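Entry 14. Ran structure prediction on the chain below.
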Amino acid sequence: LADELIVLELYIQLERIRFDNKFDYTITINDSVDTEAVEIPPMIIQPFVENAILHGLLPLPEGGHLSVILQKENNTLLCIIEDNGIGRQQAQKNKPVVEEKRKSHGIEITLKRIKLFNKEHLVSKGVSITDLKNAAGKSMGTRVLIPLAWENAF
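Output, structure tokens:
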């Protein structure tokens, strides 16, 4: 997990530079998580962060924020990725016609990898993606909850 977080932070920093600091971010690690003592499959969090940045935050005129939170919950490492972007419905509308014909498989493959990893460790929880809305029903971003089997490093 420690290595994955280093790579994730470098990726986010590169995207911030690439897009003129259009968004800010926080990575919060709960005290119950020892990043050196937990194993996770490589490149599990990054595709969801990439989607949040490219499809949620970049279309905002300003004030984008990305939050990554890691906490222990029973026998899982819970990764929470949240953005205050335009939301999935608007992001879908923004896709050019050419892009709609070309299906990306990054998230689909990552979801399958998570399912296999969790199944191997007898964890039945799956990834959940929630559209965040205010009281008036206006989109306020997206939240992704990724439960990963708690696997101690050896």
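The chain has a mean pLDDT of 92. Will compare against last week's run tomorrow.
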